Amino acid sequence: MNTYLMKKAMIETAVSRGIKEMRDDPERSIRRLCDLGKQFSKNRFSDMIFSVMQELLDNDDSSYYDMMHNLMKNTDDEAMKKFGVNFGYMSWTYGAGILRKKQEELGICLPWAMWLRIDTSKENGWTVEKLEHLIEGGQQMGIYVYFFRETGTSTDSYEMLDLLEKYKDCAFVWFRSTGRLTAAQIQMLKVCKNTVVALPVEDPETLLTAGLLRDQKIIFALSRRYGDSFCRAENEITMESVLSSETALFFLLAEDEASPEIKARCAQLCKDSRMEQKYPCLMIDYYGDAMSISKVLVEHENVFELSEDGHILLPDHSRGAAFPFDIPFEDAMKSLMPPFPVTEQK
User: pLDDT-based confidence at 37, cuts 50/70/90?
Assistant: First the structure.
């Protein structure tokens, strides 16, 4: 058995035991699970995350205990373990180590995750074959997290979930453009334990669907798009719906036209909410936190996002070159990604 598979099996066993103990003694076991995470972390980012969590959980009144209570009540144990280990170990530890070595070897910046925009109405849009090409190539280079953001009409197609369930070492977040899911999709999500579905809080159907997902113990998130009209007061109103859903994850997604000032304000809002433990859920800045994680994991802030028809999106959200699916994945990344800044040896 490969060393990483042995390590993953050990972590999964420890997490399974930790989740079981959490049901018997939640507060004490949450602290122990956090201690365990720090013990297994092998890079400064994971170590920093668990150190911050330990500090926050020293507060007996932390809202994160309520968050974990909701998560335990509403989520299948296997889903919590599978998604958590794939995100925390396969991506942030095992995958990040491969990425750092590949960056030095190839001399290019590599992303710790991939962000894809999906619109099923596009003639030259994403196909299962193209997605497979990206995921398989990405895994070989250490990329184990994928964000799929629907920007057009949602689809009732089941091919997406069939595909995601196939890649059992990866973690996926699927941002829906509607709050509606079919009964069949909900049952498939119940099986697809490496995937979190994110529903738009502004859709009236979302809270109804959230209730169905809770009943089936399927892990889910809520999301909200924002532009230049975003403000704290408006977000407080949104949080009423977020909290009533009992979700543990709430994503704020910047629209392309949002100004740098608004994005900075949103990033600060998310950071403040986490450190102040204001809500029993994690508020996440979709782009801002992605860049912060990238800076620590792979020492640059380049986010790799592809448009609905497979063109790379530049930092100003203009379209760059099309992803060349007809060449090996590594060569494609060489053609698209900027040089990696190599530091001089002292």
Answer: low
* Separation CA 15–CA 27 (nearest Å): 15
Number of H helices, E strands in the chain: 14, 10
Q: What does DSSP assign to residue 287? A: T
Report CA torsion sign: 22, 25, 31, 35.
Answer: negative
Instruction: Say how many C-beta atoms besides its own lie within 10 A of residue 166's C-beta.
Output: 13
The residues near 38 (Cβ < 8 Å, ≥ 6 apart) are 46, 47, 50, 51, 54
pLDDT tens-place string over residues 288-337? 999 999 998 999 999 999 999 999 999 888 899 999 999 999 999 999 99
- 51, pLDDT greater than 60: no
Q: How far lies 29's CA from each of 23, 66, 77, in Å?
A: 8, 14, 15
- What angle is formed at CA 230 by the lines to CA 278 and CA 48, rounded to 5 degrees? 45
SS3 content of the chain, % helix, strand, coil (to 5): 55, 15, 35
What's the whole-model pTM score?
Answer: 0.90
224, 238 contact by CB (below 8 A): yes
Question: Treating both helix axes as pointing N-terminal to C-terminal, what angle do 44-57 and 63-74 enclose, rounded to 10 degrees?
Answer: 110
What is the DSSP secondary structure assignment for residue 257, as one 8-state letter?
Answer: T
